[in-house]
Design a protein that fits this description.
Largest sheet: none
Structural class: mainly alpha
Strand content: under 5%
Order of helices and strands: HHHHH
Radius of gyration: 23 Å
Number of strands: 0
Number of helices: 5
Distance between the termini: 35 Å
Shape: elongated
Number of domains: 2
C-alpha cells in the first residue's frame, strides 16, 4: 500500500471513531513525531554544533572541493 492510500485509510478510520481515547493516542503519536530534533540531542552534541556554527561565522571553514580531494580515495569506493 502506498503512502497516499495509507493516509486516506487512516483519515477514514479517524472520521469513523467516536472514541476520545483513540483520538488522543493518535494526537500524541503525531505530536511526538513532529517534535524538534534539537530536543533529542545531548548536551555535547549541541555544544559541538554551536562550536561549528561559530567557526563558520568567523570563516574557519574548509572548502568542499578541498575536502573531497583529501578524502578522494575513500569516495571512489
Amino acid at each position: 500500500m502506498d503512502i497516499k492510500a495509507t493516509k486516506l485509510e487512516l483519515m477514514q478510520l479517524l472520521l469513523q471513531t467516536d472514541k476520545e481515547s483513540v483520538l488522543s493516542k493518535v494526537r500524541s503519536v503525531l505530536e511526538e513525531e513532529t517534535g524538534d530534533w534539537w530536543d533529542d540531542l545531548g548536551k555535547e552534541e549541541r555544544e559541538e554544533i554551536y562550536v561549528g556554527l561559530v567557526q563558520a561565522d568567523i570563516g574557519e571553514v574548509i572548502d568542499h572541493e578541498e575536502v573531497r580531494k583529501k578524502f578522494d580515495k575513500w569516495l571512489q569506493k
